[in-house]
Specification:
The complex is a heterodimer of chains A (about 70) and B (about 210). Chain A is an alpha+beta fold. Helices cover about 30% and strands about 35% of the residues of chain A. In chain A, strand 1, helix 2 and strand 2 form a beta-alpha-beta unit. The longest helix of chain A is centred in the middle third of the chain and has 12 residues. Helix content of chain B is about 35%, strand content about 25%. In chain B, strands 4-3-5-2-6-7-8 form a seven-stranded parallel β-sheet, sandwiched between helices. In chain B, strand 3, helix 3 and strand 4 form a beta-alpha-beta unit. In chain B, helix 1 crosses helix 4 and helix 2 runs parallel beside helix 3. The chains are: A alpha+beta (about 70), B alpha/beta (about 210).
Chain lengths: ~70, ~210
Amino acid sequence: MHLVELAEEAAQGQRILSLQVRLGRASCVTAEALGFCFELACAGSLAEGARLELQEASGSELELISLEVE
Amino acid sequence: MSRRVEVGQAVLSKNDELAAGLRKRFDEMGLRVINVVSSPGSGKTEWLQLTLSQLTRRGRRVAALVGDLETDRDARRLAESGASVRQIGTQGMCHLEAFMIEDHLREWDLTGVELLFLENVGNLVCPIGFDLGQHLKVVLLSTPEGEDKPLKYPGAFAWADLVLLSKMDLAPATGFDLPFALANLQQAHPGVKVLQTSARTGQGLEEWLEQL
């Protein structure tokens, strides 16, 4: 949810096509869980239908690096 | 044509900002805040009941904010101590977040209160990701849970400033191997301070109150 909120703010009203996210192994979030929640969290938002592109990291990062907007 | 927007922001940065604001407010109020985390059933509420009633009896002004998915059972238990207590119903969320604390502070007068305990939702994973503006992070490990919990959930024990081994009165019944548990705690968090406690017998209470 926090991720989608952050993305919507950065997108400033434009439709979001994809999100590039850095996900650390020690972040307490797994790629599978994030992927599952992501679709639900995006429903009805500017990021509806957007692609989630994960970059693996080794620390506790959970960071929205960039967006691709229309 | 699509366009790239650089963001470069931690997903939980909003929570961190709110928590930093809370910490500043707590400091201005002279309020010390303790975030208490453990798995469900390890005795957070029982220990806080004892803590609050002891502190209240000694004339200290204390308060507690307790998070659970459902019911206000824990808040009612803690309020018996005479302390000011509020319940946060997280409605399914598995941890407390800074915005929940902020919401509750809006209509709760804590003037003159010295200590505020935040009893987090029973969970050894998610709560550690969310700063609540606390000054002290406490994790409970109860003897029936097993000595190897610090190895299975290293994140929570590495996060803690202080670990309370709870239900020490049950240690003989559960065959709790204390040296093994202490070694595992040191492996998860070298140098972490550990207190052996029991809400039933009052073991460790004075040492705990000193830490506050």
